[in-house]
Amino acid sequence: MIDALATGYVYAIIVAMMMASLFVLLTTGNLIRKMIGLSLFQTTAGLFYIALSKVGGGTAPIIIDAESAVGQARAARLDPAYVEHFGVDGVVYGNPLPHVLILTAIVVGVATLSVGLAIAVRVREAYGDTELDAVRRADAAASEPEPPGPRGRPNA
Fold first, then answer.
1. Within 13 Å, how many C-alpha atoms sit on residue 34's CB side?
2. Number of structural domains, the chain?
3. Which of 64, 95, 117, 142 is the most exposed, having the fewest neighbouring CB atoms within 10 Å of its CB?
4. DSSP 3-state assignment of 134?
5. Helices and strands in the chain, H and E counts
6. 123 Cβ partners below 8 Å, 6+ apart?
7. What pTM was computed for the model?
8. How far apart are CA 63 and CA 14, in angstroms?
């Protein structure tokens, strides 16, 4: 039970951060706050993926000779059946692919954030506000047809 709590608290914290960022994303009307919520959600999704990819007793994926002192010391700390099943030539390595994918996701997240903030700046310049309700009201007021003039023609 203690082991489950000791390893599960990381996932609980990450899920709580995900829910908080989704709450910010869905409940706020401010474009800047929405972008912050989206960025936080992307970050916590990356943390969750990295936390899931942790290999118990694994080392960095740099080739270590199993016969060397370092290789034997690492293997001695683990169950021999575990090393036999998950190891490569007597050494357990971590998988580098999740880290590479998250690096790509970070780049995409930064690009998404920068485009979103640029759009928010343009909205602020055009409407004078970044609140969605104010932008919608201004948009609706601008799209209402002009009432006809005294002879049935629009006012000029």
1. 15
2. 1
3. 142
4. helix
5. 6, 0
6. 31, 129, 130, 135
7. 0.71
8. 32
